[in-house]
Every structure is written in C-alpha cells, then in structure tokens.
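Data availability excerpt. The first of two example chains:
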Amino acid sequence: MKGGDNGTVTPLMKQYNAIKAKHPGALLLFRVGDFYETFGEDAVRASKILDIVLTKRGAGSSSETALAGFPHHSLDTYLPKLVRAGERVAICDQLEDPKSVKGIVKRGVTELVTPGVSFNDQVLERRSNNYLAAVHFGKTEAGVSFLDISTGEFITAQGDKNYVGKLLQSLAPAEVLFCKREKETFFQSYGPDFRFYALEEWVFSYDFAYESLTRHFSTTSLKGFGIEGMQEAITSAGAILHYLSETHHHEISHIATISRLEEDKYVWLDRFTVRNLELVYPQNQDGVPLIQILDQTTTPMGARLLKKWVVLPLKDVVQIKRRLDTVEALTQHTELLDELYLHLKQINDLERLISKVAVRRVNPRELMQLAKALDAIQPIKKMLAASGIPALVKLADQLAPCDGLREEIKNILKPDAPMLTNQGNMINDGVSEELDELRQIAFSGKDYLAQLQQREVRNTGISSLKIAYNKVFGYYLEVTHAHKDKVPASWIRKQTLVNAERYITEELKTYEEKILNAEERIYTIEFGLFNELVLQAMDYVGQIQQNAKVIAVIDCLSAFAGIAVAGNYVKPEVCDSHVLDIKKGRHPVIEKQLPLGEEYVPNDIYLDNEEQQVIIITGPNMAGKSALLRQTALIVLMAQIGCFVPAEAARIGIIDKIFTRVGASDNLSKGESTFMVEMTETASILNNLSDRSLVLMDEIGRGTSTYDGISIAWAIVEHLHNHPKFRAKTLFATHYHELNQLAEDFPRVKNFNVSVKEAGGKILFMRKLVEGGSEHSFGIHVAQMAGMPNSVVLRADEIMHHLEKEKVSEHAPKQRMKSAPKNNYQLSMFELQDPQLQRVKELMEQLDINTITPVEALLKLNELKLLLKDKGEMVR
C-alpha cells in the first residue's frame, strides 16, 4: 500500500501495514485523528456492511487505495454491525496525545472484538449467553469448553463426539475455536454452520493448557474444580484462555472458577431431539419454541439460566423435588409472588455489570444501575427470609447485602450520572472540598464576567463594551472604533477589526487561567474519584456474582410459579420408579396457540417396563399423533427441570434419555435423502438406548416403499421390545395399521389409536387416544380436506376400494395393480369437441336456475343422463 505518487510509503501507511500484518484475519479500525479508518480490502468490506462511503486515497496514482471511515464517537454504532456480520475487528487506537508528539503518533491494537469475545451491549443479546467455545479432539474422546466473558461463566466437558455435538447445539456458541489440523474433523462431525477460528497446533497442548489454567486461578492443581485428569477438557479450556490473551483481554479476574458439565447429571437430549421438540428455536419461521412459553423471567440473568435448564434437564430426584417444592410454595403465596415480581423488575443485568467493573469498562451510569440493583435485592432478601418456606429462606441466606458498596456509590455518584467519564458532572457535591471550590470558580465564571463587564462600562463610559472568548487568545474586551479613545492605557490591544478593537487585561488573563485550570483540574479529580470507586467495587465482584446466580434462580422459579397459576399446571410426582403416567396431559405450546374459545383435547399416557412398554398409535394424518408424542416428551422435560406441567396429574419415573424421530429433516444439500436421514437418526437411537429412555418415533419408514417401510417399522418395534438389556419406554406413531398385529405377538406392546368419526363420507378428528388399533388411514379424506382436485380424490377412492376387495397375496403386488380398474373417464369432461359433451354444455348454459320448476329440472336431468349414457356406451 503506497502513500505517494513517487511510489514511497508514507510513515502513516508504514505503521498501518506493520499493525495489519500482526492481525491478518481481522478487519483493522485504524484511529487517525477523530476518525477510525479502514484501508484496502477492509474498506471494501466495511463499506458494504456499514453502508458508508467508499473513497480512494491517492486516486489515479500507483498508490491508489480504497478508504472508508467513520467518526470515532460512532464506534458503538458501527462496531456491533461488523461483529454481527461475523467479522473479527481489531481496534487500533492512538497511544499518545497527538498534541504532545512530533511526527507519527504511536498506535497499537487495544482490543480485538470477535463474535465470541465482546462486552459491547449492542453486540450482546441481553437474554442469551454469548459463548466462546473451544473443541479439542483426543484419541478416544473430545473436550469442549464454553466461556461467556461478559458474565465470567466458564464451563467444560469431556465425552464422545456426539456429546460434544449435543452441547454445541444446546449452548449455541457465537464462535468456536479448534486446531487448524482438526478443521476437517470438526466440519465432518458438526457441520460448517458455526462461526469459527482455527488456532495453531501448539495452543492445543495439554501441558500449556494446564499451566495456563493453574496460573490464572492461582492454584497448584485443578482438583478443586473437579476437572483434574480430564485431558481433552483441560486442553480446550486452555485454548480459550490463550485466545483471550491474543485478543488483548488481559483483565479477566471475574473469571473466578471453571465448572464441569457432567454428562450423567443431565437428561441426554441428542441434537435431533433438541431440534425436533423445538425447545429453544422453532423449526419453521412462524413456529413457537417451548422456551417462549416458559420464559416469563424478568431479569436477563434469569432468562439466560432458564435456557440452560431447558437444554439440561436434571436426573437427580432430590434436586428436582427441591425446585418443585419451591415452585409449589410460591404458587400458594401469590402475594409474595407478585411482590417478588415488582422487585425483580428493578434489577438490571447484575452479572454483566459486575463483569464490566472487573475489566474496568464500567461507566458512571452503569455503576448507578449496579447500586439500584443492589437496593432492589434488600427487600427480596427480607421477604424470602420472613416467608418461613425453607427453600426460600435458604436462598435469602445466600444473598449478600453489599451495604458498603451501595452506600459508597450513592454517596459519590450523582443519581443522573452521565455515560462518559469525560463529560464531567458525575461526582456529588460535598465529596471533595477542592472539587467544590473549583466548581464554584468554573461555573460562577459567567457571573464574574458579567460583573466585570458592568464595572468596566461604568469606569470607562463605553456603553457598547462586551466581553467574549475565542480559542486564539481566550477572553477579551471588544470596543467599537467610536469609543476607542476612551480605552484605558493599561489595556493591551490584541486584534483590530473593521468596526472594532479587541483588548485583554491582566485581570482577565488571571481569571481565564483560573477558569481553564479549574476545568482541567475538575476533570482530573472527578476521574480519580470515579476510578477509586471502581477499585472499591472490584472487591465485591465475587459477592455480586453470587447474588446474580441466586437472583437468576429466584427469577426462574418465580416464572415457573407464574405460568403454573396462569396455565392451570399441576405439580408432577417425580420418583425413581419406571412408570410414566400422565393424566389428561396437554401440549404446552399448542394449547396457547388455539383460537379463542377452543379447548385443547387432553390425553392420558401410561408407560412402564412390565406391562405397557411400547404403545403403537395408529390413526390418520392430522389426527394429532405427532402432537401427542411431542407433548409427552415436553411434559417429562418440564417436570425434570422443576416446572409444573399441563396435565390433571403426572407421575414421572426419572427419564435419563429422550430420543425423537419425528418430522422430515432432509439433508438434501449434502446429497442425503429424507429416508437416509431418518434411518441415520433411528440407528443413533437404537445404538444408545438405556433402561430409562423415552423413545418417540413418528411414521418411521414412510420415506421408502410401503413394504420396505412396514418391514423396517416392524423390526424396530421388535428390537425395542426384545432388547436384551433395556426396556425403553416407546411411543410409536404410524399409519401402517398392519403393525397392530405386533400386540398379538409381544406382551408389552399395546395398540392405541387417535379416534376419528366418519359421517356422510367425511371425517371428524376427535384428537382422543383410545385403546385398540385403527383399521383405516383415512388418507383420501385428508387429501380431500387439503383441497385436492375432486377427480383425483374420486379416482383414489375407486382404486382403494378395489385393492381392499382384491387382497391379493403379498408376493404379487404388481398383479394387484394390473387388476385395478382402468380410468376410462380421465380428462373426458374436458374433451368438449365431442358432440355429446358439447350438447351437455349447451343444455347447462341454457338453464335458468331462478325460474325453472322442479318438474322441468327433473326432465332436464334425465336428458343429461341419457346423453352421458350414450357417451359411456360409445367409449366402451
């Protein structure tokens, strides 16, 4: 990149090139005066993303370079747009005051902002974590770590590739790190949809990672965190710490611990199940995920915690019961619940505010928000302590009052403190005597100048005298030429204008110096006091992080209580048995979407390991089989996160794995058919069963021929029933009513159907699960309801009745189709060049429906019938 016509590189561009070379993959924002500039390819990308003007530096010369920039004070507006577009942004600032430097100003990258590493409120989503993840593949297992630098949460896990994939999908990191040589492995295992950054191989060294973690946490080992010996997990966590250093994030004391995500603590939800059940994200644009129904939290911390609870349901009965008992207590004390809600609304994002304190990026207004949040915690602590409910009293005990910090912030900062520290006016009066005196000098200046002006007018008799200020020579007295002979000899002339002369006096200069020094000193004192306050707040980081966690739990449980009361949910009985017994269960999402006045049809589901392990559900499409499957899984999941459930009663024997194979999830872009994807997902289920699994299968085998489909579905049911080790509780929805025969051969297989009423050739969906198999699929009726052309529906009905009569042997399907009736009338109604049909058309057009008598109508109908009869005989 050249800087002049003669091909030489200017000092500025030399400096730019050197800094850019250190960050080749990042878009470099280069501070030049009051602007952040981008050059070359960076400028082209920035102009497109930010919709700013792309210009040229050295246009027409050999050094021509693309250029795009924006004012430095607009950084918070433009930076989020770049990061959301997936850019890694290196912010290069001036490290010296240009006024005090001769020649080129020293510059350097002060921060590298990436999708996974940011404190910017415009980049971050308030109600979601912004995780940076790192994956490391070992010989037999993989390690994965997640860090949200904006909250300080740091978690790690180790397991097979499937477990790591499930966590990546559930926690949805904004950016994933992996080793350059493992790029292909990562893409093959988890796809290319994540924003990623590949690091050098040496970063993923176990020894390097172990040392990085122990040095950061100031420990001699990692035993205290429960991750000692987890080589792959530790390696991935170490890569994250290295990346923070590489992106110039050195103030990270708020990352005070690392916790282990233990696979056997939580219900196994594979990535297909998280997607199929629409737990966090809908599959369709207009869909509603479960989280949208459950998330009635009022704080950002509560919303973030709830997302984790939904994708990580518990298996520990004691822990689940503790949550359920707390929710029950809150539903029984609705006044307490309402009051809690009012105070929770006052609490801002405690977690992210205290993180900003720890990294010294907090502004005065945010510090005031922190104080207000701590104020709101006081009444919550008192209410819970006085409630007499053991679980709530325990939560109250865990809340730290932080009285010293609250009082200090309110004593020092003004209630309406500004966002920027260089705007002044952030420190209260009475905090510093010197500050108060300087403020009087600086802000009473106008009064003093007005008095000075009046005095000089009196002394000199110059009525038009005025005092003004400019940047060249500060304060001055201006006198028109008409009065210049009245000017005292002690005044010093500084400037002559067309109509006036400008003067300065010793008194004016002395006062000016006092005012200017006062303003500068005020800024210094205020900035110093604010920094002292931030340092004091840093002593409370641990306590406030603890408060944030407790408030998040209170918020989630209060939300559960609120939706339980509003939605008429019941407390489920969660136990160690192998029974799943739901009475009058409802789908939590669908029931909220029903038109006003329409009630959801509830259903019972009973499954156990001894009598009723597999339920085969038959019935037509659209009857509600899929909804029934999903609602069963959602009720189990809600119970095991500690939430009440939409049912009349529910007894939930702990489920440790939920598998679903529902809906089409084509992967056609990768060349995989619907059937292939279906079989892959089904294979994954059958290979990972346990004795406490809940398996939901919907229309297995429909992606292939009928006989293949029935055979595969039949074999799967047999496998689930006859498994040598595990009796997985299974709901198997199918339109193959041939599978009903399985109940005769296998004792734990039972037939149910979603009932339908047939009347006058039409069907009415009852959406009620009843015992016994279904004889018909009613597919033709559904086709008719969907608006299929009538001729197609009639022809399908004709063929179906013929096939049902024939019932030829299963070895001769082709013979069956050969004997099907020929469609002799296909398109015949449209062949109007035929004389008979032309005559029918003419007769129909001549009819006047409004005047014809019943007898005339019958005669005309008979005439039409004869014409069509003749036509039919001619065709035969």
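And the second chain:
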Amino acid sequence: MGSLLRGEEMSLCQLFLQSEAAYFCVAELGELGLVQFRDLNPDVYLFQRKFISEVMRCQEMERKINILEKEIKRDEIPICDNSDVPEAPPPREMIDLETTLAKLDNELKQVNFNMDALKKTFSELCEFRHILEKTHAFFLEMQGTGLGEDWTQLAGDDAINLSIHAHVKLNFVTGVIRRDRLHSFERMLWRVCMGNVFLRQAFIDEPIEDPISGDHDFKSVFIIFFQGEQLMTRVKKICEGFRASLYPCPETAIARKEMITNLTSRVDELKIVLKQTTEHRYRVLAAAAKHLNTWKVKVRKIKAIYLSLNMFNLDLTRKCLIAECWCPNNDLERVHIALRRGKDRSGSSVPSILNCIETKEIPPTFHRNNKFTQGFQNLVDSYGVASYREINPAIFTIITFPFLFAVMFGDAGHGLLMTLFGLWMVMKENFIQSKKSTNEIFLTFFGGRYLILLMGLFSIYTGFIYNDIFSKSFNIFGSSWVSSHPPDKGLYPEVMMLEPGKEYSGSPYWFGMDPVWQVAENKILFLNSYKMKLSVLLGVGQMLFGIILSLYNHRYFNNQLNIYCEFLPQIIFTISIFGYLNILILAKWIFYDSSGSSCAPSVLIILINMFLYKYEDTPCSLAPMYWGQQFIQTVLLIIALSCIPWMLCVKPYFLKKANDERKQMTSRPTNNNNIIIENEVGIPMEILNDEVPKEQEKVTVNSVDNHENHEEFDLGEIIIHQVIHTIESCLGSISHTASYLRLWALSLAHAQLSEVLWNMVLRIGLTTFNGFAGGLLMFFIFAFWACLTVAVLLLMEGLSAFLHALRLHWIEFQSKFYAGTGYSFQPFSFEVILKQEYEELN
C-alpha cells in the first residue's frame, strides 16, 4: 500500500559496464524492467552514435521479417504462436539470424520472380491460344455460307463488302483486350480510321489472371481487318493506348492448327511447372512461419538493446560504457543481481559497478499496480501524473469513485446487469486476452473490468438503499405505513392521505426506503429533499477529506508554512460554513419528526440569513433550531471571513521577511557551515525557504553561501499567485459544494427515466391484451424494453454517471491536495516494448 499511496522512492544511479559485458547486462535489465535510462548524448545525432550500424542491421532484419509475414498472410498460412517468449539472443546469434533471414529473403525473391515470369508466360500463352481458336473458327465461317453465332459485327455493310471484294488483299491484326474497354476501343478505331477498318470480337469465357496485379479479368479476342500500311500504324498505336495485347496469327489453317497443338502442350507443361513452383513457395513460407514470431521478438529485443546502448557514454580510457538510470530503491538489489548475471553470461571477469548519485532533478513517479488497481490508476493519470512522492488519489478512488457513481446510478436491477458483465470479463480475462481482440471499444471496457464490477456492486447497494429495482420496489420487511381507517365496504380509495402521526408505526423500514413511497404521489418531493441533502453531506465530506490529505502532503515535504497559511484557513473556512450546514441537516433529520414537521426550519434559508445577518422575527418554519443560534452563526461567519485575509496576506509576508533576512545574512561573515536561521518572530528559516517555486522539494539552509543559489525573489508574482489561490479556495469551496448536487440530479433523472420506460413500454404489454395474444405481444415488448434498458439506461446513463463521477474526482476532490505535475516512470522493459509494438501494428 505504501508504494501505491506515495509512489516508490527513486534514485539516480550511475552504471559502469565493460564493453564486452554491456550488451548482456542491458539485456538482463530489459528482462527485469526496473530501470529507466537517461540519454547522455542528447546533442549527438542518431547516425553519429556508436551502435547505429547494429540498429540499422536490426531495421533491415525487421523489413525482411515484415515481407515474410506479408507473404505468409497472403497465402493464408498459419503462424505458430509460441507462448514462451525467447530471451535476448547473444550478439553472435544476430549474425546467424541475419544470414538466415537474408537467405530466406533471396530465396523468396527468386521464387516470386520465377513465378511472376511463369504466370506472365502462362497468361500470354492462354491468350494466344484463345486468339488462334477464335480466329480459326472465324475464317472457317467466312469460307462457308455466313457469319457464325460466336462472332458479332461492328457494321453489317462492312461484312457484305468484305465478302464482295474478297479478291482484295487485306491486312489484319489480332489481339486481346479487357472487356470493359472494348466499347471505347471500337469507337476510337471507327473515328481515327474513318470507318476503313472491320473489327470482329468474341468473349473469352473464363477469366485470365493478370500476372502483375494478380486480379482475374474478363477479356475479349478481337481481329481487325484493314488495307495499307498507314492504317496498320494507326491501329497498332490505338491498341497500345488501350493496353491491348497483340499476337501474330498465321494466315493458313494448317499453320494455325499446328500452332494451337503446340500451345496446348506448352500450357499443360507450364501448369505442372507452376504447381511445383507454388508448392515450393508454400514450403518455404510454411517453414518460415514456424519461427517468424520468435525471430520477430529476438530482433526487437536486439534493436532495443542497441538503442539503449546508444544512450550511454563511451569511456575510452577505461574501455567501458557509462550509463545513468532511475531505479526504485527497493529494487537496487535485484538490479545488482541482474548485472552479475549479465557479467556471467558475457564471460567477463570485471564486475559492473552501480553507484547512486546525488541530483537536484525531480525523479519520475512510480506506483506498483496490479491488474486490479491499474484501471483506477489510469483514471488518475489521465488528469495528471502525480508529482514525486505526492499522495496518490488512486488508492482512495477505488472506493469513492464506484460509490459516487452508484449514488447517481442507484438501481439494483441495472447494477446487477452491470455486475454480471464485469464479473464475466473478470472470470474470462485469460481467455479474452489470448484472443487478442482489436476492437477498441471492447478493449476499453475490458481494461476497466474491475472498475465496472465495483460500480455494479455499489449500484446494487444504493439500489437497495433507494429500494429501486427497475423502477419498482420490494416489500421485504413489511411497510411501516398502515392505514388506520379501513373502508366499511369495498376497496380502499384510489387516492388517500396517510398522516405520519396516525398511519406511521414509528419504526422505520429495516433497510432502505419504505416501499410505500414508490406509489406515493409526493414521492418526488420526498426523494428530492432526501437526495439533495445526501449529496451535500457526501460532497462536503469528500472535500474535507481532500483538504486533510493536503496536510499529509505538507508534512511529508516539510512545507510548514503551507500548513499555517493554506491548510488551516481552508479547513476552518470549509467547516465554518459547509460543516455547519451538514450539522444542521443531520440535526433536522434527528430532532424533527411528524409532530413538529409544520415548524421544521429550512436549512437553506438559515444559511442565507446567516450571510445576510438577518435575525428578525420570522414565521414558525424559520424559527431558530437551537438556543444561541444567532451568536454561534455570527462567530462562525466572522471566523470564515477572517480566513480570507489569512490566506491572502500571511504567506507573502513571511516569504518577504525571510528573503530580507537571507539578504542580511549573506552580507555577514560566518564560519558555521551548518546553521538554522530564525527570524524575529521565531519561525525557522527552513520553514520559509521551502517556498521556492518547486514546492515538492525539501529545501533546507545548509550554509550561508547557498543563499546565492536561490532564484530571484519576486514579491509581485507571489502576491498574484496567492490571490489566485485564495479566490480558488474560497469561491471554489462554494462552487464545488454546488457541483456535488449533480449526485442528486443524476439520481433523480435515472430513476424517472427508468420509470418512464416501464410505464410507456412494459406496462402496455402487461395491460393491453390477455391470453395468447397478450403473451405473444409481451414477448416482443419485453425484447424492446430490454434493448432500451441496455442501450439507454446502462450505456448512455451509465456513461453519463461515469463522466460526472470522474469530474467530481478530478476537480472537486483532487484539486484540494493533488498537483499532478510529475512524469511517469517508464522503465526499459522488453515486455512493455513488445506490447506497444503489438498495439501499434493492430
């Protein structure tokens, strides 16, 4: 709990690593994940660092692995997912891995090149065979009685003229074109050649694979007849522009038949060669898929190690690498063990040295979290990372956040559904994590599974307190309201008044609200008053708790001036006004019952009159609650108002006083190297000197010479800062108390929306029809009501209550003690690096 409450104590350490052992030591530290290295070469370009060549080699191996992975996924080959994560390999294994990947890459390139060439040849041979078959059929038909059904003509007159002038020598061109370009191709030929060409085309039934893109396109065979060399040049240019493939076609039938026979045999041979090449490629990729994840992890670890080594300084005289890192004090022994293990792996006889060094830099913040507390820590870190050794609100948020959420979401039925969903994610967390889902919305819910579980459990509790279960109540222990005047005959009237003095038994309902309030017409008036006062009680209590936590921060950092000039006036101001308001609320609940309800005072009016100092004769409902109320309230008001100048003026005065005395002491000679200076009022200077701009540092005066190192004192800046702080403290306490009324508003809205959904949807199905028709209608109405309940009341209303509870913690609670100006501890960890890269890829 200590680590989660204030964070780990951190030390800046200096590492001296021998060159031959540095790689293995960093590898062991990466497996441990407990040190954060500092870049000791911030002004050196990346390409000028010592191990940049190794980093580039790792990047090249990553490129080859990505190519292999892409090819494997394209062929839908399963990749072996090894559960055991391999350790960082030694440097000599990097050479073997590099050789293996280079061999696979070259082999895959050669296989792909050969396959592309074979596919291109196969595609060309198939197109050529279709051209010969279609043109051969065309010439046979032209020698017969007419055109066959397999061919269509561009213009019937051209076909007649072709048969009439058969003795004219015509040239022709044959080729293949994509079917979607055929229409534009015909129009272009007709316009450019001015109708002096004759085109015939026929569809190819099966699609032909494009060797470049891999797509399967439907194509058509065409033959173009024309006369003259000039038209031939135009036709070929048009075919080239439309990316049509031209093939030579023999003029004689015998030559065409022989060529078709040869092409058929060549196509069959190519099919066999393509099949063998595809099988060989599959075997290569399948063998690589077995080790792909292992290679990927090893390369990433090697790259991370060399990137870390590039952050070190090289000491040529000692032949060692010098590094600086942040490390938790409690883990220094584990770091020593990791360094010894790295030295043993390298075979070096010189041990690595780890020294803790003094620094004025603020260390990073490190909280040890588990899978339960990590979700709550993420909520706090979203607002700001805690300053070093500052109290962490996450440990209190574990209880207060789901409770405040449940106050707004108080329905036992809805809380039960939320609890079941959270419990399912908790019970199946190992199974869900193994699936490695990429759905961001689900991953967000899964990351806060324990938070959702607690919110559901607390909602069940507050739902029983409100006696609200799907907008209905349970009468478990028997209502305390009983009608004392039963009717002479028949049923009770539909509307009747229950007087507390007569119909109330005097003993309250055993747990939660009496169920009779669910059917009362004044239910909203009663619950409004109850929930509004409850919101004020909870809000003021949480704010006072936040102010008390600020005391622990001031005491830990030895900021005693903040205790006297900030904590004391803040808590006195809050208790004098809002603490007194809470006491009045509790007193009214305790001492006023049904017998004196007509003269029960209004707490809000009493508070307003306290500020207006209005105490003349008032009606019975505004009479004083106790003897001496005017005197007590006057004293409290004077105390609260006196806290404003206290916060505003005292702190700048003492800071100015301390600065003047510091200047006087610097001009006096002294031989004492370790003194404590006191001012005229007897306050030690160490109390005042801690108010330099960085309030989180423990500052003491060790010598008079150290006064010269202090930053220049600016009284105007301090006064402005104190004015802002005073305004925030005084006005903020008022606005923050009012802000907690959202607990009442959201709770009332959720209850009313649930009741409206019940009356407007489910009640219709229960009262509209009877018998089979009513049961069938109820089936669909219940499904509609359940969908609306989940979508509106659980998701939308739950998200709204979640955001409001988050705001209450960030602004109203944490602003009292939490600065959130630190930076998180980011250790060099292989586990974190692999996880981040996996998330980026997905």
